[in-house]
Amino acid sequence: QVQLVESGGGLVRPGGSLRLSCAASGRTYTMGWFRQAPGKEREFVATIRRSATSAYYADSVKGRFAISRDNDKNVVFLQMDSLQPEDTALYSCKFSTTMGAFWGKGTQVTVSS
Q1: Which of 6, 61, 82, 96 would bridge 104 by S-S if both were Cys, CB 3.0 to 4.6 A apart?
Q2: How many CB atoms lie under 10 A from the CB of residue 85?
Q3: How many CB atoms lie within 10 A of CB 28?
Q4: Do residues 112 and 11 make contact, with C-beta atoms less than 8 angstroms apart?
């Protein structure tokens, strides 16, 4: 029912920044960002409630990434600062409902000199 489209990925040098966006086709509630590098398991990055009054981050990104949202526009953001080569991955957003989880196709983030 709900389609998710990520954008904002690209190539950035170590120490640089990127801002990812996840645009939803309709109303969403708690949303999350995940990432997966080739040959590795998909891992949790961050989650945010609809009210945006609480958020949770993986230890690996805490202090460097910030999740936010604009409910009027049905968009969730992921601000990524101080990027490291280890952050290179396909970043996807997720919306879970009682009917199952909805995933976007992802946007590629590559951190390299």
Answers
A1: 6
A2: 11
A3: 22
A4: yes
